[in-house]
Amino acid sequence: MTSSAKPARAQWLTFLVVAVLLGAMVWVGGADLIEVIERGVIRNRRGPDLTVARSPVLFWGAVVFFGAGLTLCLGLAAACLSIAVNAIIRPRAARAEAND
Fold it and tell me: pTM, whole model, 2 decimals?
């Protein structure tokens, strides 16, 4: 194994780990967001809770904000996974062409 192969391997592994961690965060955040929508309450640790009955505009604004954040996190996870898969497949394709 050459010295240039080690960083490439570490690079795709890093992207794969980041994609898995971001995917896990999206999964947990999505479950929490669904729970918030079902209950109609966003728990606030320092002040009063935000409920859909008291202030629906703020509640739905916060839900949309959290949903947009989850969507962006999911997109970043997909991009990291795509880079990792591309880094794994590309060297194999190059080796297959070299053998032909």
Answer: 0.72
